[in-house]
Amino acid sequence: MKKTEQNQIDMSMSGSNSSTLDLRGRQSVRATFRLSEACIDAISILSAQLGIKQKSIFDHLLENAQVLKSMASELENTKFDRHERIQKTFVISRRSLSFLDTISSKHNAPRDALVEYSIRRLLPIIAKERKKHEKRKELLADISKHFKAGESLLSKAEEKLGTDDLIVDKLQTAISVYKNSFDDIANFIERGKIIEEFRPE
To answer: What is the pLDDT of residues 140-195, one digit of tens each?
Structure first.
């Protein structure tokens, strides 16, 4: 076998191994932490408001090794108050858990404390989402009026032209699509009401 061909095979195998390791790092695992109720709520709220999985939030927080190391240095040899904290199991990536365990052990920083303080970094995002939620509710009232006006226009068209008219048919289609979108918007805002009651400690 030519040397160039062997090099190509070696490079291909190396790339394959790298991809395999990356995929294994992305595997989902379950991890249990003892956290404050506020932090557990924060994860649920962001997942609902941003439309992303809780696992993705944890991966975003815990795969930033530099930030984790900085927090671990501050928490080194700190005793983490476990009173009034709730035991909760989450799904996170194997890589995130590995980073967390390694840094926690190396700096002698409580693992639960690292997770707690990592989640607290998200509080400004929740505050921003709370303001956006209020604006969405205001817009929903306007959207509702606009939708009702559309229904009224459809009724008027049916009375003047009959239900089998081409224009009426087009309007019915438009109002039907509008209703689906309106329902989706209303349901999304309803689910977001959890953010109204959120009070960080």
So the answer is: 999 999 999 999 999 999 999 999 999 999 999 999 999 999 999 999 898 888 88
Find the mean pLDDT for residues 120-139: 90
Query: Quick one: tokens of 107?
Result: 């700096």
Nearest-5° Cα angle at 37, 36 to 38: 90
* Residue 74: closest CA among 30, 114, 133: 114
Please tell me whether residues 167 and 90 are part of one structural domain: no
From CA 86, how far away is CA 57, in angstroms rounded?
Answer: 19
State whether 140 and 116 are in the same domain. Answer: no
Q: Domain of residue 74: give its range.
A: 24-121
**Size of the chain in residues:** 201
DSSP string, 54-120: HHHHHHHHHT-HHHHHHHHHHHTTPPP--TT-EEEEEEEEHHHHHHHHHHHHHHT--HHHHHHHHHH
Task: Please tell me what DSSP assigns to residue 31.
Answer: E
Q: Are 98 and 19 in contact (CB under 8 A)?
A: no
Asked if residue 18 belongs to a domain, the reply is no
- Could you give the angle at the alpha carbon of 141 between the alpha carbons of 139 and 142, nearest 5°? 65
Q: What percent of the chain has pLDDT over 70?
A: 82
Q: Is residue 75 part of a domain?
A: yes
pLDDT of 1 strictly over 60: no
pLDDT at 44 over 50: yes
Task: Give a yes or no: residue 1 inside a domain.
Answer: no
